Each structure stands twice: as structure tokens, then as C-alpha cells.
Known about the structure:
Largest sheet: 11 strands, mixed
Amino acid sequence: MNRYLDIAPEVAEALANHKPVVALESTIISHGMPYPQNVETALKVEEIIRENGAVPATIAIIGGRLKAGCSKEDIEYLGKKGLAVTKASRRDLPVLLARKADGATTVTTTMMIAHMAGISVFATGGIGGVHRGAETTMDISADLEELGQTPVMVVCAGAKSILDLGLTLEYLETHGVPVIGYGTESLPAFYTRESAFKVDYRLDTPAEVAAAFHAQRELGLKGGMLVTNPIPEEYSMDPAVINKAIDDAVAEAEAKGIHGKETTPFLLAKIKEITGGDSLNSNIQLVFNNARLAAKTASELCRL
């Protein structure tokens, strides 16, 4: 086992006994919303995973240790510290560990640490992707590269609609990542259930999703699988409203020269401001929905 890695006892017991485990990221705690709503949401997501038959493993970096499974105290700590916690991608790990510092894991680092621990299923909100204008800025999320090389299933509500969805799909295709639509042939666009783009395959049950991922692993194919789960109908936002908010937020980010890993937090905060908080509520509900599907799929995967 990696000498920097701590696996929580409950998670270790589940893995040793072939019980379902679902990984969760911690950026949503430190950077996703204010305290105490961030902590309440994180604990609720863990509760939903338990209710659906799996063990939750919130992943983070605390005091230079990679944590596969956080205690309530750890989650409270991350929630209170908030933006003071480094948003940690792959490139940040060596220095954070050497400094014995804290880090909130992105999709990339959650996948990495989950794989180190032996966890195969991960639930999040939305993945990063190719940013608008990337043909000149080269601003492409490390999440896509990780999906191409780390064998973890990522259950999400699609790529964040602040991105260039078409180029994101092209990048995933190039890296051989299957993009699955859960009950849909259209790529969900995070805040909305549909976009103008198609997924690779539609699968309609957790058992079908688990079987596809099992086959991928049995073939020895490197890389992950992206399962896109549309936001529940009652929380889906009006496409015209959210797209206008996104366009306005992107224009402001460009005017202010915001780029790199600061882009997504800025855009999400600005969209929340423009929509009067509706986007944050939608964000929370889609995470809950993804947690349910991930837990059910992890349970099916353990039966194979």
C-alpha cells in the first residue's frame, strides 16, 4: 500500500470483504459552497450512499496524508477551513505531501486516491473538460487526462456547462473513454438534462452499467468510464436562463483575465449570483442523484 495513504477502517473492512464502496471528492466541501451548508451537504451525500447499500469514502488530503474515507471531524475541518484549503490536482500532490499540508481533491485526485485504495466507483457533480476558447488557451482540465489512464468509474451529471461540451467529448473519444448516458442518449449539461451532443451508449439500469465496466476491466483496458446521469427533472434549470448566465459569467472572467484552476470556482460563483442561488440548489440535488446511482452501481459491480 502507498505509504502516504490512510484508508478509513470502515472502508478497509468493506474492500476486504468485497462490499460496495463509493468515493466522493472534497473540493465540493472546501470550494463548492459556504459553511455550514458544505458540511451538511457532504454528510447528506454520505447518508444517501449508505441508504442505497454502499459505504461512502470521502477523499481528501489532511496533514500530508491521502485519506480514503474521512471522519465527520475531517469533513467539518475541511468545511470550516474552506478556500484556505488548496484545490489539489495531480501536479499539487508532491508538494502538499512533502509540506504535510491539506488539499481538497478534484475529480483527478479523487480518482487517483480511490484507485490506490482499491475503490472502483466515484460519484461527483460534474467533471472538468475543455474550456471555451481552449484552441488558443490550451485550458483543458486534468480530469480528462485522468479518465484516460485511471480505471475508475465516474458518475456525474455530465461536463459542467461552462465548458465546450463538443470538444470535451472529442477529447474523451481520443483517449478511449466510454461516455455512457444513464437513461439518455443526450449528454446531460449539468444544470440541464440535455445538450446538443450525444453520448456513446445509453444504458438504463445500474446492472447494465456495472456489467459494461466489469467487461472493460476484464479486458485490461486502461482508463475509466464516464457515466452521465441527468439532473432530476424537477431541479433542471431553464436552458435559456442558465445559458445566458453562463455566457455572462464567461465574458466577465475573460474581461478580468481569470484563467487556469481559478476559472471554474469563479464561474460557478458568478452563475450562482446571477441566478439568485438557483444554480447552487440544482448543483446539490444532482450530486444527491449521482450518489444514489453510484451506490446502486457499486452494489451491482460487487455481484460480478
